[in-house]
């Protein structure tokens, strides 16, 4: 197996220079958090080329149901058609550009532009534009569509004409994600954060648990993330063995796939793998990622018990998920500018679960609300530091920041391989 | 008569390219709403070259009366001198640049700079600067003046050293505007809007009534704008004939000049005509542009009755007016930046009309307040749409958007003909 | 003595052109208040090259005491070490750049990064970084330090590797400043202003009292600043003689050094002197710069009486001070951007003075709060004026604006002599 990163050099000399300026094993130089030309290049090579998580199929169960999503200056309408298929359209009238809808979600028989009443079907075709001259070719005036894929109830879209193949991601994610039942889930809560940090700093934070011990007192109790291999005491090895025994499961899709301490390796920069799914162990006393480790909602999807541990999903550049047997929490990133990132954290439960009767927000939210907000605070603090003219990238820990390093390698490869 | 647009190509290759990128009969490409270099070029070729509406002579009836006006980073003092003449000065001391006044309007014996008390006459000459050395040539330190013209009580100014001739505009506007009596009017109300849209989108909206039927339920009842020629039913032709009969008037200046449905053509891009005045019909039951069609104030100017219909004035790039026999409503634009335009809507009545006794704001304002705000909402919605990377200009309606197309041709000609 | 300015021409053609565009004896052209490239050049040649006032040694009397200071995107920690020495460090962890502290001031045993607990001594060395690989060379991972000097209780720092010599400034400032006792003072009050004006406009305002008569009714009563030489009436010469007699003092450091009306000349552009200290006369009835001229706090430092007049200190580009026998008021500038300057005004009294018992803010603050705020208002008004496209620099008064002219010559020399 080839472990050397595929070598690529960008045709853009400025980008080539920036990429070359990063010293192996070190954090990124200051320009990576400040350069507007780089930011524009990232937009093209990563955000508008790759697959972006957009939402959940359970948000729009019926034909005509839609939700909207803003990505940079674009707004998209994610709409279920008469044929039950979900499509993504630019929310822009093909006459003079008016926004078709300003609603965050809703249900429509047709999309009617409020300016001059041009009317589009739920499949995006123009079928009515009274007041226009004879002979107009309506077939060329349908809504602009972007690529869309669904996978186990998750919706992904890409602005690229020829995006990377989605199939390998589906094969990797779907088997593990299907039992979670995203297709028949409901959104119990969703919180929007405007984090004053470059999007990469949020991933860098996500890709190491070196910072967890002091900063995440709640989170570290539920799992073995901070115990990196080779550092495991006898006591910890026993705890791991007990946890593995407790989670034994005949079903492959429910089996714990990351059977040790520390973090599963991700991404695989050398093979350009931007997606991953695994199942990790909960510690003794934890049935779910909640403050007291107890379940906080009815079982989701096809789970029969708590033996599935925690399902972790990740897709670069903008999605991760921690899901327990009873609820799932997803994190969804979108850059707002060089120094601000929109983050949406969403809590999902079984679609039939009723608040007050089956769950309460007081129990459901705190574990990931606390952990997330602790991280956003750290990311903002790093942003302020890397703004400094005196910031120089320091060495990364081989023991604790290997995934961060892998993320940086993956990222630099995206920059370099963009034509 | 030559109906081909005078051909001109800008010496600036970037502008030339942009102008060439517009497809005839289609809306403007995205760059026209986003490009900062174009915006700077517009500033020079249109806003600082042409004649800008600035206000009304009735605002400053006596020597020493002034009002100020901000245009981009400049502030101007429009001041009536001892000789009764109105002049426009830059509100900037010729010593070290201090703003002479921060008031919106007032009355002064002289303009005294608060910093070091340099003092200027009401004609703009420096006559006092105690503390300066002997031998200073005061005659070279008068206030910087810009060109100013008045026409039937309307004040226009130009930053250009050699602006386009104003005389043809005066000849066209003054005869129809004089009877309205702007010289002896008073401002009953004025409302400032910061519309989040490029200034051109506001004109594009103004130049067609294709959008009126659904968006302006109040406005469409009072006039025949939405009934474009060739589409008139027998019933409508009868209504037009009745309205014309009712408005019959021996006085040429009060005669209805647009005697049909739809909009009068404006601008005349092919002859570079940036000004227009006409009189249009009110529908049956309408004596004034008010919600119930009834008069809302005493007769203005030299009107004897309601037979003058609606006086419509327009001057590009920043003024239009709808005036009934009893009140006038003017709209005054100034760009704030690429995506924001300051709009001031002003309601005028006879100078002797007293609120409560002769008119109420409850009756006077709603017709044009509603119609204006409906339009600003649409313009902002188009701006958000044309921000989208997916926006592509669509085809214009030959039947309903011919004036919008004329506006675009006029606009492109201004860009191209600027040296 | 050579009174010609040392001639220098910048290697940067844009700067060279700007410098050449200023007409001798006139205010600066508009571009000096608007050009971003110039602003960046100023940052390098003046703000990051020279010595910046940072604060007072009395703020951090004990080892481990610190305060922070923001300069552009940098934050600095000014920290007293175990060896009692004061140092300035960039507030940036050498691992991944996190801000070490977000506090304005405090006291620490060591500087511990909250992200991964890298720990630095109070002298800035890295001594703990658990989780990192063996063999890391900690000696190369200490905090980034900047140059720092203290002088009579005032702290100055420079970002330059080779800043201008500080010794001449110390020799000039220390003898006159020592008696004021900044080392054993306390900050009674401090007020932060965000002045919407370019930093140069604030110095230009500071360097002339041509504007004082009308704008500073309180200030002008306490001193002879507005009475420029050659303009002194018999009556004023008598008042000066009386004031000099009243201030007679055997101690050289307490002697009035500016023994006439008007302003002492500063800066000395021709010899590139950026620092000055002098003592000026108070008028009859004034013992201190207070509204009623009475003392407002106990004597500071080694003063025995009020005969020392007013100690005035100035260092370009960011500090001046007016100190009476009983209190000192310092003004501290830092540019925020082209059109905004952060100004901090600080009132100091003897460290043992207790509020309510020994002084009240009601008596201490108004004199300089009023005078300062009058000036900020003027500066903002000039900024708005020089924004105008019509602003042209006017002639300076040889009689009243000679120090302003000297400031401009000093400033232009800094721009030109920067390599």
Nutshell version of this structure?
The first copy, chain A, has 419 residues and is an alpha+beta fold. Chain A has helices at residues 13-21, 36-47, 167-177, 199-206, 212-215, 234-246, 361-364, 366-386, 402-417, and strands at residues 52-56, 65-71, 74-80, 86-90, 105-107, 111-112, 119-120, 126-128, 145-151, 154-158, 185-195, 275-280, 310-315, 319-323, 328-337, 340-350. The first copy, chain A, has 9 helices and 16 strands.
Structural class of chain A: alpha+beta
Oligomeric description of these chains: homotrimer
H-E string of chain A: HHEEEEEEEEEEHEHHHEEEEEHHH
In which range does the helix fraction of chain A lie? 10-25%
On the 0 to 100 scale, the average pLDDT of chain A is: 95
Beta-strand percent range of chain A: 15-25%
Poorly predicted regions of chain A are: none
Largest interface (CB within 8 Å) is between: A-B, 26 and 26 residues
Note the gap between the termini of chain A. Answer: 26 Å
Main sheet of chain A? 7 strands, antiparallel
Radius of gyration of chain A, CA atoms, in whole angstroms: 23 Å
Number of H- or I-type helical stretches of chain A: 9
Strand order of the largest sheet of chain A: 1-10-9-4-3-2-5
Number of strands of chain A: 16
Molecular shape of chain A: globular
